[in-house]
């Protein structure tokens, strides 16, 4: 039975033993589509997260997808082009059920303005990373990544945790909403600025944000007291980051860590310029795009200038993957890239071993299935400190949204081993239903994003998009259930290409084979990508785990 969804009553949370499709694989993908809407930011408009990241092109396309998933046989493959179903072809039972290409625009045309025009004509939509691929699991999807960033900084600069430290950030949206909880889990006093009071309330309602301060003075007092008492605390503040950051700097306050996760990548549908309210911005989105882009960029210039000032005074400042430095540089801030990107600064040694944001969703809708897999994880990887620490924390702090799900940064071999054991638990009835395995697109072999994931690669291969394309083709040959190639839309147009994958553990022998091939090959490619770029960690992984990388010379 689907469960009521108090946040979005029209979009119930899927679950239960009854199938509407002709098999569990099809049913699973249907539930994942329902799930991204149930946890999405604006499901009435099919928007899941990141300002414009959509689950389907429009409601007619959505209906067509639901119909196809419900009626299709196991030996068919549904083709989706930018969120619209375009055909159901006969393949074979080991082929993917769904393959998608979302928002891939030819190089010289891949610009925000061209994207907006194609979108206006109804020819394209942006899938974000995980929205269009039905893999989004709410703010939990990035929470471990955000937590691991904070902990890497804590280890390097603050003696191991963030107790007694002030973190300043902005953006409480679909992904940014993970920040207050991740900060609190790391022990920090974290202040999160968002222009939209609704977003702040939503994060508070679902348990990701503790307090909302009525004004900046109160917010700073609350943070100051928590810092003094070394007490973890998350505080939201409704305001524009382009005003609040410079004001904090003007008062001579230097936070220990500063970042930002507003939708700065999109100057029209994401970032809100200072001096404008949300209604004014909405009014300009169709007819005043040029004006809005200029105003957003001017505000981002002030926003990033304040971040640079904090950096100069000793704060640890980083870009959390929203293109804010790129926008600021285009607005004239020549040294915007003095701010490092989180991937290169903190997480690359993990990615070089293909350790990244792996996740799974209990299609039964039962939280007990996730709890059982948590136990299994602890039993299988008792010496993996990242995992044991994370599962302990996640169990205590991370509330479920939508289908119960868990994220855990696992690497080559580990993902496959876990998924196959879970498949066996589905087969013997220990779990109440099948489990879907997936990962973020921001994963070792899966993404080319030269200002985010692949910035300053050791061999200079930052902008080469062959890797996600090889990944996708390989995953189709490796029997994954859903394979997708995404490129950037809105402000990300021309900035990235990525590959996504989902495999369903339905307890069958076929699923065992799919999980084995798809998950093993996916992380093997991740190791190869970094080995090929000359990363020692990857070469070590090749040797230790017998990764079939062809090393020339
Ligand atoms: P979202 O659109 O759901 O939320 C963005 C939030 O920023 C909104 O709540 C909005 O009100 C707020 N905002 C906009 N302008 C503001 C301003 N000037 N001052 C204060 N608040 C403002 O987006 P999201 O899903 O949370 O993603 C945020 C950004 O992070 C995007 O650019 C996204 O692409 C990026 N992202 C990074 C990662 C990563 O791995 N680091 C992962 C996912 C998304």
Automatic annotation (TrEMBL):
Annotated transmembrane regions: none
Subcellular location field: Cytoplasm
Keywords, alphabetical: Cytoplasm, Histidine metabolism, Lyase, NAD
Matching SUPFAM superfamilies: Urocanase (SSF111326)
Cofactor binding annotation: Binds 1 NAD(+) per subunit.
A Gene Ontology biological process term: L-histidine catabolic process to glutamate and formamide
Residue ranges of domain Urocanase N-terminal in the record: 17-134
Main location: cytoplasm
Catalytic activity: 4-imidazolone-5-propanoate = trans-urocanate + H2O
EC number: 4.2.1.49
Pathway noted in the entry: Amino-acid degradation; L-histidine degradation into L-glutamate; N-formimidoyl-L-glutamate from L-histidine: step 2/3
Residue ranges annotated for the Urocanase C-terminal domain, each copy included: 349-542
GO CC field: cytoplasm
Gene3D superfamilies listed in its UniProt record: Urocanase like domains (3.40.50.10730), Urocanase superfamily (3.40.1770.10)
One Pfam family recorded for the sequence: Urocanase_N
Residues noted as binding NAD(+) in the record, renumbered to the chain: 174-176, 194, 199, 240-241, 261-265, 271-272, 490
One example GO MF annotation: urocanate hydratase activity
Cross-referenced InterPro entries: Urocanase, Urocanase-like, Urocanase_C, Urocanase_central_sf, Urocanase_N, Urocanase_Rossmann-like, Urocanase_sf
NCBIfam families per the UniProt record, alphabetical: hutU (TIGR01228), PRK05414.1 (NF003820)
Family membership: Belongs to the urocanase family.
Function: Catalyzes the conversion of urocanate to 4-imidazolone-5-propionate.
Identification of the protein by name: Urocanate hydratase
Protein species of origin: Rhizobium pisi
């Amino acid at each position: 039975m689907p469960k009521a969804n108090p946040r979005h009553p029209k979009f119930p949370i899927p679950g239960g033993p009854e199938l509407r499709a002709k098999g569990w694989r099809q049913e699973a993908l249907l539930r994942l589509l329902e799930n991204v809407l149930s946890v999405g930011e604006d499901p009435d408009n099919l928007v899941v997260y990141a300002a414009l990241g959509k689950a389907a092109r429009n409601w007619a396309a959505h209906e067509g997808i639901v119909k196809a998933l419900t009626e299709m046989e196991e030996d068919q493959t549904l083709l989706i082009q930018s969120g619209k179903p375009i055909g159901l072809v006969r393949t074979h039972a080991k082929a993917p059920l769904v393959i998608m290409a979302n928002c891939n625009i030819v190089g010289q045309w891949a610009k925000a303005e061209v994207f907006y025009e194609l979108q206006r004509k109804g020819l394209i939509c942006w899938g974000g990373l995980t929205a269009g691929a039905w893999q989004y699991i709410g703010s939990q999807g990035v929470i471990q990544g955000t937590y691991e960033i904070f902990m890497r900084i804590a280890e390097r600069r603050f003696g191991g945790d963030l107790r007694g430290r002030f973190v300043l950030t902005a953006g409480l949206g679909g992904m940014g909403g993970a920040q207050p909880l991740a900060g609190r889990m790391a022990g920090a006093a974290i202040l999160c600025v968002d222009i939209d009071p609704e977003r702040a309330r939503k994060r508070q309602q679902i348990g990701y944000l503790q307090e909302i301060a009525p004004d900046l003075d109160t917010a700073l007092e609350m943070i100051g007291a928590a810092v003094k008492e070394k007490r973890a605390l998350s505080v939201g503040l409704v305001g524009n980051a382009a005003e609040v950051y410079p004001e904090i700097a003007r008062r001579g306050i230097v936070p220990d860590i500063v970042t930002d996760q507003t939708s700065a990548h999109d100057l029209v549908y994401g970032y809100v310029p200072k001096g404008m309210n949300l209604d004014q911005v909405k009014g300009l989105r169709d007819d005043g795009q040029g004006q809005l882009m200029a105003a957003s960029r001017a505000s981002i210039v002030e926003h990033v200038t304040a971040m640079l000032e904090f950096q100069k005074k000793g704060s640890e400042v980083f870009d959390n993957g929203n293109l804010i430095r790129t926008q600021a540089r285009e607005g004239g801030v020549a040294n915007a890239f003095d701010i490092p990107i989180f991937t290169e600064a903190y997480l690359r040694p993990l990615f070089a071993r293909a350790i990244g944001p792996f996740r799974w969703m209990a299609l039964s809708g039962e939280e007990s299935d996730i709890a059982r897999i948590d136990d299994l994880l602890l039993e299988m990887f008792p010496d993996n400190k990242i995992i044991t620490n994370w599962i302990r924390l996640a169990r205590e702090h991370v509330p479920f949204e939508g289908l119960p799900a868990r994220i855990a940064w696992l690497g080559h071999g580990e993902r496959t081993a876990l998924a196959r054991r879970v498949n066996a638990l589905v087969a013997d009835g220990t779990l109440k239903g099948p489990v879907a395995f997936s990962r973020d697109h921001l994963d070792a072999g899966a993404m080319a994003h030269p200002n985010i994931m692949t910035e300053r690669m050791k061999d200079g291969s930052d902008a080469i998009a062959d890797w996600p394309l090889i990944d996708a083709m390989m995953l189709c040959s490796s029997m994954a259930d859903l394979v997708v190639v995404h490129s950037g839309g809105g402000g990300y147009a021309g900035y990235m290409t990525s590959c996504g994958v989902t495999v369903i553990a339905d307890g069958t022998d076929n699923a065992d084979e799919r999980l084995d091939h798809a998950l093993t090959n996916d992380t093997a490619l991740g190791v190869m990508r970094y080995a090929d770029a000359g990363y020692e960690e990857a070469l070590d992984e090749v040797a230790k785990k017998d990764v079939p990388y062809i090393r020339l010379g």
